[in-house]
Amino acid sequence: MLMGDKGKYIGIVMGLTFASLIMTQQPAIFMGLMARSYSFITDVGLPDIWVMDEKVQFIDDIKSLQDTELYRVRGVSGVEWAMPMYKGMQKARMSDGTFQNCTVIGLDDTTLIGAPAVLVEGKLDDLRRSDSVIVDFDGANEKLAKPPLIEGGKKIPLKVGDNLELNDRRAIVVGIAKVTRTFQSQPTIYTTYSRAKTYAPRERKLLSFVLVKAKAGQNIPELTKRIQENTGLAAYTQQEFMDLTFNYFMKNTGIPINFGISITLGFIVGAAIAGQTFYNFTLENLRQFGVLKAMGTSNWTLLRMILLQAILVGSTGYGMGVGLTALFGYLMRHSILAFKFPWQLLIFSGLGVSLICMLAALISILKVIRLEPAIVFKS
Amino acid sequence: MNIAVRCENLTKIYDTGEQKVTALNHVNLNILLGELMMLVGPSGCGKTTLISVIAGILDQNEGLCELFGENLLTMKSKDKLRFRATQIGFVFQAFNLLPSLNAAENVSVPLIINGEKRDVAKRKAIDVLERVGLGDRWKSFPSQLSGGQQQRVAIARALIHSPRLIVCDEPTSALDHASGHNVMNLLKEVAVHKDRALVIVSHDSRIFSFADCIAEMDDGHIVKIS
After folding, report:
1. Which residues in chain A (308-337) have CB-CB distances under 8 A to chain B?
2. Residue A1 pLDDT class (50, 70, 90 cuts)
3. Cβ neighbourhood burial of A54 (10 Å; 0-12, 13-18, 19+)
4. Using an 8 Å Cβ cutoff, are B224 and B215 in contact?
5. What integer is the mean pLDDT of B29-34?
């Protein structure tokens, strides 16, 4: 019946497509954005446990420790190794004299544990050379890129061999690394722990994290607890630290509310368009439903007819919305936009679209069930 | 017993809350099998209400209405639906064909309601459309047919499941004179049968000559049967 009325059919499908798109695309951006909050932790994949000051609330909330804490952690039984990591914000002075805030990561001088896994240029070992740093790919191509040779031209990406200045000290780029974008979206500069301390303003405490690997067969949660008890520091498994960071952003930023409003609006607008059009369709075809009733069609059959039509438009709209979201994600894959599309989102938006369809169908079903078949003889 | 429909003291009152309107006031009427009965009278006299009660799509307040010996008022709603689906055929003033279905699909609807398989129903529908002279138009949608052709499709739909009572509401009022006569000739030819009764509501005096019996109504009463 509904398929015969192309205008209404398209109207309902468009409404549901819009709702499905908003209810899938906006959470995908939200998920992508939130995943960036802990992307640094996932990039540093090797350690089992992260040790830090007990007041630390999330990955960028650095409350530095004394270097001696490293040795206390190493002294805890069950620890295979424990390595220092510096993480801090520094201003990089570029060749044209401008400054750019960067995240500087200091890695253990010997093992370089915590170094980026993928280098698109240069070698990790070169980090042991004097004044050497590795810069992340996005930072090298965007914020740390050199000004164009001609006005209005393209910026020149930072390359191996180029120089920077960090806190009045020379830094020579020896590698370009591919790392996951972080929430701060600042360029990330990797160097050794001891060199990072020379770039940092002079402070008594500069150790940000202690990265710990458990001995084989160790129970990680138990070791985490033991480190906490023996050192008085906070110790988290990788997942716990990711959750801590994620929850901090959820509680202390307006991001969930902003995206929640967008998703709710998408639901309401989609429900309004689809529900109203579906109901109008039912009203316009009330006489046809009356004819079917008069001819002996049961309410149950009419109910199934309406539900089938709701499922048909719902599936089409949902499929188009999800398809458009996937296309959006594909087209934006190289952009700065955060986008993460886990399978759970398909269920989330599917439930949203189903709810809209059920609401739209329900009001129509009530109208049809209450319909007196004698309406067919009214002119 | 050759009585198809027996109405005794039928009363129907519409209660709108603000006022009560008596549409049928102690109506007595018998319709015989093989008879084409025409209900005539001015607008608002109760013709449509009477065929609605006879067809079992409206319940009376008082009185008895029996179709082939069955009292629809006391029937369970499921049985009543089944009875309507198998025993009654409808022809409407505005044709009331489903616009998204072609002629054959529209005609096959009563069979599908009665549980027939779609392909079988469609084959039978094409046969019935042949009988009403539209065998070559079975693929056409209602919007592609003239008023007369649409009413022929509606007649085919009313006949396909071989109902014992056919109820027609102003079947010619939306048609020109020639088309109206063609439709009535067709109804007389294909619908009147010794095991079947035909009730037509009309105020189109041009077609009164087709009736075997005319019941004149006024103000909720049958005032004359001729």
Report:
1. none
2. low
3. exposed
4. yes
5. 90
Give the domain range for residue A273: 2-37+254-377
pLDDT at A64: 92
Cβ contact A292:A249 at 8 Å: no
Structure tokens at A34: 């939130």
Whether the pLDDT of residue A379 is over 70: the answer is no
- Tell me the per-residue pLDDT of A8-60, one tens digit each, with 9 for 90 and over: 788 888 888 988 898 899 899 999 988 888 999 999 978 999 999 999 999 99
Task: Say if A372 is an interface residue toward chain B (CB within 8 Å).
Answer: yes
Q: Is B110 on the interface with A (CB under 8 A)?
A: yes
The residue extents of the domains of chain B are 32-48+72-225
CA distance B209 to chain A (A): 23
- Mean pLDDT on A237-241: 95
- B86 in contact with chain A, both atoms CB, cutoff 8 A: yes
SS3 A220: helix
CA distance A330 to A162: 33
A333 has pLDDT over 60:
yes
Give the count of Cβ contacts less than 8 A between chain A and B.
72
CA gap A125, A361 in Å, rounded? 65
Specify the 3-state DSSP secondary structure of B168: strand
User: Could you tell me if B99 lies within 8 Å of chain A, comparing CB atoms?
Assistant: yes
Q: Looking at the domain assignment, is residue A124 inside a domain? A: yes
Residues B96 and B78: their CA atoms lie apart, in Å, by 24
A73-97 average pLDDT score: 92
CB B15 within 8 A of CB B209: no
Sheet with B165-169, strands from edge to edge, namely B88-91, B165-169, B197-201, B36-40, B213-218, B221-225
Write down the pLDDT at residue A51: 96
A297 found inside a domain = yes
Q: With beta carbons under 8 A apart, name residues in chain B contacting A377.
A: 48, 51-52, 57, 92-93, 169
Q: Supply the CATH classification number for the domain B32-48+72-225.
A: 3.40.50.300
Q: Are residues A26 and A72 in the same domain?
A: no
Our count of domains for chain A comes to 2
Whether residues B48 and A377 touch (CB distance < 8 A) is answered with yes
Q: A275 falls in which pLDDT band (50, 70, 90)?
A: confident
**Tens of pLDDT along A155-179?**
899 999 998 999 888 999 999 999 9
Q: Find the residue in B nearest to A2 (Cα).
A: B100
Looking at A232, A262, A283, which one is the last position of a domain?
Answer: A232
